């Protein structure tokens, strides 16, 4: 097996070309590592081999160590699965090889892939190859010597920037930095690399071992200063991520005690950090994100996605204009329909501002921005709908209005056209009730701002055809979203799961807990802002409108807080009108607004739930759990009802739709780390103290009692209830 995946060919020139072949990205799986060990040993041994070229098949050098192995380590806790690559292979077999080794890099060299190239004696690259060490984004640090060799090739500051940001550079920049020795057209890559390797063998070119170089490191005091500043910055920007400080410590070891000492420390620390909760969470998110593109009976039944070239959007409000922006920026023609020219012009203006704003921030070139804007056409009737491939309705949340629109578009659009709605709450069966083509009705639930937020929740009904789902998934990918296919229910997967989030926070405030403390606890946990600041941002109108929907759908477990109504009555509408829980001043962080306190007091008086009229006393941990465990509880109901294909889809949806911290792996993953039993017993206790809002779901109760993880696949009984 290993032999078939790492190939070696020895040419008449005496150069052995060792090729990694593991499509699609030539990940360094364990058989590949074994194959590399074997081929390097053979090439070193053979007398007819003068020099070696290491390359990857299919236009990609390597996407790094096989991330699935991390998952196995996490599942088993057995770190011995990890092979010794850093010392035994990259250092001893490659860098200290008796024959020169040149890396021929094309497409990408990431993580362990780049680390192999760093261990070679020269690196020749094709244009636009991505070079990077993204390990920190997986919660680990580079483990094949990257923390030592990269600073020695590109300088300390640049190496730290590349590792801490996890962002790759292009081979063109790599050439300027000295990471790449020569940049050559793809077709010449192997030819030039072979010649380069022979030149080293014949001493026409220098035989450089990266680990032995010191010329780019600067003096010890300069290096210490660079590290000090990097540590300070990392502390500020990534306070919950241990891998950043650890990576800097490992880099420092090599600077003080020499590269090989650094390599040894790196290997030791790597084995510890790979087992950290952060690595578990981030690896889970990486693999789960890719799993969302596998939808049973949709992506595995041989259907081919049809191309969507032209989309009509009905409604140019905040959502409609954001969706239109996302589409035109990715080369899809958009027809924007509004009811009158005033609204239409407003919608078009918003879209143009969105696109030009992105160009101003350097996200796309001016030319690309103008091209995108030219792909938009505003209309006031349905004439242009005759050749659209998809319609996305994005009008206000009104059932009969949506039903009328669906009847009209069914007549105006061609028979293959996807009929999508961007509703965030209304039952899709209701929206499609009055038309014949219910198989083409689907939810395209974007998150605001739609041109920036990465999640696309695709809502299917029992009648939606697999082709329609596949086509919308494809559009999602074209516009660079992560499409997650979910079933139909109030709030769908994300908003439904998170409806108790704001309610839990309100319940605590009404029990006497300080609102600003709650926000602090939640943002320290890793969400970008707490629930009250989030409500300020969305405006209280949204909170009141969706609150009513949830009261209708989940009357057995909602908490009705008088607070939002009171804020509204007092003329407050959050950030919109500058009167929220916080004071918003340009250029400074939001500050708690003391004038909101009497309104909170009034709410407490009205709700009258404080035990014996006194505020409850809780720890920060309890605050966190009293806000998030009800969310976990609702997630359990979503899983039980089969609203998502797999638990990890809900993790991805929570990370991308709600900004749940990715390093905690998503809502279900986090709950399993905390333990279903603890979630259940806590909820049980609080439901006895504070009422039905905390009542544990049967799914949670069963799993807690039986010791089954919440993420374990549903039982046969539950599957039969699936809404997918
Ligand atoms: C010890 C070492 O220091 C540790 C390491 O090397 S850790 C690994 C470091 N490398 C990385 O983080 C790179 C991770 N991969 C990526 O960023 C992207 O996959 C990529 C830029 C390589 C390619 O992106 P793209 O073309 O959009 O394809 P993408 O869908 O992401 O990946 C294609 C397939 O390759 C898989 N894949 C990509 N990189 C992988 C890796 N390092 N290990 C295992 N599988 C990998 C993906 O899971 C996906 O599998 P699927 O088809 O079954 O869903």
UniProtKB/TrEMBL annotation:
Where do the coiled-coil regions begin and end? none
* GO MF term set: (3S)-3-hydroxyacyl-CoA dehydrogenase (NAD+) activity; 3-hydroxybutyryl-CoA epimerase activity; delta(3)-delta(2)-enoyl-CoA isomerase activity; enoyl-CoA hydratase activity; NAD+ binding
Q: Where is this chain's protein located in or outside the cell?
A: Peroxisome
Q: In which pathway does it act?
A: Lipid metabolism; fatty acid beta-oxidation
What Pfam family is a match for this entry?
Answer: 3HCDH
Q: Which GO terms describe its biological process?
A: fatty acid beta-oxidation
Keywords recorded for this protein, A-Z: Fatty acid metabolism, Isomerase, Lipid metabolism, Lyase, Multifunctional enzyme, NAD, Oxidoreductase, Peroxisome
UniProt keyword NADP present? no
Q: Does the keyword Oxidoreductase apply?
A: yes
Subunit and partners: Monomer.
Catalytically driven reaction(s):
a (3Z)-enoyl-CoA = a 4-saturated (2E)-enoyl-CoA; a (3E)-enoyl-CoA = a 4-saturated (2E)-enoyl-CoA; a 4-saturated-(3S)-3-hydroxyacyl-CoA = a (3E)-enoyl-CoA + H2O; (3S)-3-hydroxybutanoyl-CoA = (3R)-3-hydroxybutanoyl-CoA
The protein depicted here goes by the name Glyoxysomal fatty acid beta-oxidation multifunctional protein MFP-a
Which cellular component terms (GO) are annotated to the entry?
peroxisome
List each copy of the 3-hydroxyacyl-CoA dehydrogenase NAD binding domain by range: 310-488
The lineage's top-level taxon is Eukaryota
Every 3-hydroxyacyl-CoA dehydrogenase C-terminal domain range: 491-584
Q: Which family would the database say this protein is a member of?
A: Belongs to the enoyl-CoA hydratase/isomerase family. In the central section; belongs to the 3-hydroxyacyl-CoA dehydrogenase family.
């Amino acid at each position: 097996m290993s032999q078939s995946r790492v190939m070696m060919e020895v040419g008449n020139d005496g150069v052995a070309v060792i090729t990694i072949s593991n499509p699609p990205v030539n990940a360094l799986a364990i058989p590949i590592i074994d194959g590399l060990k074997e081929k390097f040993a053979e090439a070193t041994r053979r007398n007819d081999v003068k020099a070696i070229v290491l390359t990857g098949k299919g236009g990609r050098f390597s996407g790094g160590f096989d991330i699935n192995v991390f998952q196995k380590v996490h599942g088993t806790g057995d770190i011995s699965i990890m092979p010794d690559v850093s010392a035994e292979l990259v250092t001893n077999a490659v860098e200290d090889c008796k024959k020169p080794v040149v890396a021929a890099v094309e497409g990408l060299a990431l993580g362990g892939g780049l680390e192999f190239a760093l261990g070679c004696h020269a690196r020749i690259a094709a244009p636009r190859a991505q070079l990077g060490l993204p390990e920190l984004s997986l919660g680990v640090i580079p483990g094949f010597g990257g923390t030592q060799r990269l600073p020695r090739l590109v300088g300390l500051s640049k190496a730290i920037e590349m590792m801490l940001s996890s962002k790759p550079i292009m081979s063109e920049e790599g050439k300027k930095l000295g990471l790449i020795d020569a940049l050559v057209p793809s077709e010449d890559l192997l030819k030039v690399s072979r010649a380069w390797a022979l030149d080293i063998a014949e001493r026409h070119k220098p035989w450089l071992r990266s680990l032995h170089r010191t010329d780019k490191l600067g003096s010890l005091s300069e290096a210490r200063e660079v590290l000090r500043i990097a540590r300070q910055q990392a502390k500020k920007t990534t306070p919950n991520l241990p891998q950043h400080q650890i990576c800097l410590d490992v880099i420092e070891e090599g600077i003080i005690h020499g590269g090989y000492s650094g390599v040894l420390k790196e290997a030791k620390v790597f084995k510890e950090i790979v087992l950290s909760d952060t690595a578990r969470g981030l690896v889970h998110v990486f693999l789960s994100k890719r799993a969302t593109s596998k939808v049973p009976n949709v992506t595995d039944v041989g259907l081919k996605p049809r191309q969507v070239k032209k989309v009509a959007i009905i409604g140019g409000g905040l959502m409609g204009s954001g969706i239109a922006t996302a589409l035109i920026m990715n080369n899809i023609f958009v027809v924007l329909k509004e009811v009158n020219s005033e609204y239409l012009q407003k919608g078009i203006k918003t879209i143009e501002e969105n696109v030009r704003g992105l160009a101003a921030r350097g996200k796309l070139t001016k030319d690309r921005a103008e091209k995108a804007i030219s792909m938009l056409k505003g209309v006031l009737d349905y004439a242009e709908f005759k050749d659209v491939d998809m319609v996305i309705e994005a009008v206000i949340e009104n059932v009969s209005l949506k039903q009328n629109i669906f009847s009209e578009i069914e007549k105006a659009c061609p028979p293959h056209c996807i009929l999508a709605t961007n509703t965030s709450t209304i039952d899709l069966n209701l929206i499609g009730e009055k038309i014949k083509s219910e198989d083409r009705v689907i939810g395209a639930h974007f998150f605001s701002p739609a041109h920036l937020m990465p999640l696309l929740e695709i809502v299917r009904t029992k009648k939606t055809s697999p082709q329609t789902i596949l086509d919308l998934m494809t559009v999602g990918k074209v516009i660079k979203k992560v499409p997650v296919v979910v079933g139909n229910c109030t709030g769908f997967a994300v908003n439904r799961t998170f409806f108790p989030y704001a309610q839990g926070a309100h319940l605590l405030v009404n029990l006497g807990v300080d609102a600003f403390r709650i926000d602090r606890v939640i943002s320290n946990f890793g969400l970008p802002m707490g629930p009250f600041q989030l409500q300020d941002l969305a405006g209280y109108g949204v909170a009141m409108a969706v609150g009513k929907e949830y009261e209708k759908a989940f009357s057995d477990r909602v908490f009705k807080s008088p607070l939002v109504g009171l804020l509204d009555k007092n003329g407050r509408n959050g950030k919109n009108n500058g009167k929220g829980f916080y004071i918003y001043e340009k250029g400074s962080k939001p500050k708690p607004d003391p004038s909101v306190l009497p309104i909170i007091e009034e709410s407490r008086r009205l709700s009258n739930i404080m035990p014996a009229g006194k505020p409850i006393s809780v720890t920060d941990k309890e605050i966190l759990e009293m806000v998030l465990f009800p969310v976990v509880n609702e997630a359990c109901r979503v899983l039980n009802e089969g609203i998502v294909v797999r638990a990890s889809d809900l993790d991805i949806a929570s990370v991308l739709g709600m900004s749940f911290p990715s390093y905690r792996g998503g809502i279900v993953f986090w709950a399993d780390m905390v333990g279903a039993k603890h979630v259940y017993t806590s909820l049980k206790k609080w439901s006895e103290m504070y009422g039905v809002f905390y009542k544990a779901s049967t799914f949670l109760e069963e799993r807690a009692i039986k010791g089954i993880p919440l993420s374990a696949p549903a039982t046969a009984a539950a599957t039969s209830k699936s809404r997918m």
